[in-house]
Each structure stands twice: as structure tokens, then as C-alpha cells.
Amino acid sequence: MSFPLSITAVKHLFLSRFLQAGNRTIAGLLLLALPAFLSGCGPISSGRLPQNPNSPPRAMVAGVPFFAQEDLQCGPAALAMTLHWSGLAVQPSDLAPEVFSPGLQGSLQSSLVGAARRHGRVAYPIAGSESLLAEISAGNPVIVLVNLGFFWYPKWHYAVAIGFDQGLGEVILHSGVNPNEHLSSRVFLNIWERGEYWGLLVLPPDRLPAGVTEEAWLEAVAGLERAEQWREAAIGYDTALKRWKQSFGAWMGLGNSRYGLRDHAGAAKAFRRATLLQPENGMAFNNLAHILSEQGKRKEALAAAQRAVELGGPLLDSFRQTLEKIKAMPVLKNNRKRGK
Amino acid sequence: MLQKMLKPVSFFLVFSFLLLDFSVQTAHAQMIDTSTVIAAQKKNTDRKQVAAFLGREDVQQVMMQQGIDAVEAQKRVASLSDAELAKISQAMEQLPAGGDGIGTIVGAAVFIFVVLLITDILGLTHVFSFVNHRR
Prior knowledge:
The complex is a heterodimer. Chain A is of the alpha+beta class.
């Protein structure tokens, strides 16, 4: 008990003396070191990756073009590189108005995510070096957020991780004005840790990440819906259904996206599949009721809405509103379709 | 001057207040969007995950050491709110599946943390001050 205490005491003594005697020296040294960090969105200085038995010794993603960033424009540059790789010919200058916030002198992570979605690409966040190596090994470039400075003097920077070599202990990045920069993985992990190991995949909606989970993929695809990219969202849910055939969320999303595409028949089909998967869940019946009512199938719509209300749950109020709305709809107009 | 201003200003203020929306999450007759569906599905998974965790043999052992009735704990999990369950399942995600010597020690610490977090929320133990007890 006394042992660790005495060590801290010695440390304190040493530190305070050092600080008193060398205050100016330290300040001078810090000042000398600062310019290296001052260049926000600038190139990274060079310096190993922890051995990962699950990944191949080295990997490199092909087909990622390099765009040298202009002043402070690392966000648009990084996004343009990944969008290009995903098959969209977009220039960093096209992206700057969507991504860059002049007031912040930089680009927010959420802006990158939003911009990727507006271009019909799935923005899938990842975290940690294991995921990074797995995605690069699978051929997916990763936008990484790094802090070139310290937490108390942050210099945020986006780069695109395109390769690694575990033997040499290197990560290969398109970063700033340096294409294919080989960075010691020790340095990389240090600066990436300060960025909380945040990484972002920008994928075509028919390409699942290597370390994909159903929930995270569905959330990422739902983001496409919010950006009203219905066609891409529908492809994303179709892709999910190839991997997770019983996914209630994917069938619901597919129905909503097809509805966005004005494909009412397709939407009704998807919602029916969802009701079969979770017959105890009112949400699918609620949405089915809306579609049926728009198709003019009043009787069936009323039955579905009634079923949703009977099943209840936290969304019961919404279900009731649906039922009321369908009940209030005029009957005459849709008479001709009622024969079915 | 002030007298003259008073009337238009107060009219303006009254009008602005009329524009404010004081409605509390009114339900609309709308399609349930996919984000809501996914969130609801996650809550279900959280519930199942926590129940499965409490069913594990090693977990039951820790609970026995704490003097907790495992059957009682299972019963109470059913009454937890979605937010509480989300908190527990988030902590559970940090439980390593297995590993080397160090990993196991860290794992054990997190493991006990999670068990105690659950039992704290259930009101069976009182280890963490940040857990709010009902009643």
C-alpha cells in the first residue's frame, strides 16, 4: 500500500522541480514541435500495427483514385475518393458545398455521412483497428478521422485508409497531398485513437461490409430513405434480404422504399411478407393498411388497420389514427376495385 | 413613444405565441418509418439478450455469491424499461467472448460489472450510485 504511494510522491517531486527549472525550455520545445501539428488537414509525419492473426499479412484496395486536398478540404477530398471508388465520378469541389462548414474550418462527420447518402451511397460507420483491417482486406477503403494534434490542441483530419502491411507495420493512406502514404501503424494508431477510432465506409447499396451486422446495415440503409434515395434504399434492403432472409426490418424498409418509388403493388407485397414474419407486430399491418387504402382496397385496408389496433403496442395511437383515417375516406370513388 | 410601441409589440407577441406548437407528440395517420421499426426491433433484441445472459451458468454463480435469487432476477428483468435494458445490453457488448490471460481478467471485471449493473437496476443490490431506483 505504501509502495505505490511513495512512487507517486517521488514523481510529483521530480515533476515540480523539472517544471520550475525548465519551464521555459519546455515551452520552447513545445513551440518548436507545434508547427508540425498546426497544419490542419495537412500531411502526416511518418514512425507499428498490432499483429492480427485474423487478417492477411498485407492488403491493398485497388481503384481508389487520389485527390490532393485544397486548404482545409480534407473532408470533401476523402469523400470524393471513396465515392469514385464506389463508381461515382464526383470531384472534391462538387462536394465542398455539401460537406465543408466554413464557420468550423472543417467538415463534420455527420456532414460526410449525409453527403454520402445524398449521392445514393450507404454510409456505414466502423470502429477499431480489427474492423479496419477486415474491411481493407475485403477491398473496402475506409475514411478515417484522425487527430494530428492532442486532445487539448486538436488538429482534425480525414484520410482514406487503402492498405496495410502487418510485417512492415505500416498503414497506407491517401492523405492530404500525399497519395499512398506509408505511415507507421504505431503513429497511425496514436492519431486514430484520438479520433476515437472512427471510420466510415462509403459503399454501393448492393455491397455488404466485411464485418456487417443486420442492425447496423439496416440503420445505414434507412439513412438513404431519409435522403429520399428510394431506389438505392430498396437495393440496400434487397441486399440485406439476401443475407438475412427473415429480417422483419428489411421487409419493412423495402416496403417503405417501394412506396417512396410509388410501387404500391411491390410495397404491399413486402408489408405482407413482414406480417407473416411477425404476425404479432402491428407495424406491418399499419403500413399495409395505408397501401391497400391507396390502392382503393377499402375492405382489406380496414381489416389490416383493425388488426394493427388489436395487436396494439407502443404505437397504438398511430394505428388508431390509421384506422380512423381509412374509415373517414369516401367509399364511392373506389367502388370499381372492390370486386376483387 | 413607449405607449405607441406597446400595442403593436404586444399584438406581435400574442400572434407569435399562437404560432408556437404546444402539441405533445400527436399521433398521425402515417406509415411507420423504417427507423422506428429498427428501433423497436432493437428493444426486443435487448430484452432477449439480457434474459439469455441471466440464464448463463457463470452469471447465476456470480448472482448466488451476491445472495441473489436467479429466478427472481429473471422475473424482474421483464419489468425493466427499454432505456434500462438498452443500457445493460450496451455494457454486455463489451464482454469479450474469451481470450488470453489478460483478456479474461478484464473480461471478469466487466462481467461482474454487468451482473451488478443488472441486479442494481433490479433493486437487488446497491453498488452503483448512478443507478436510479424506482420507489
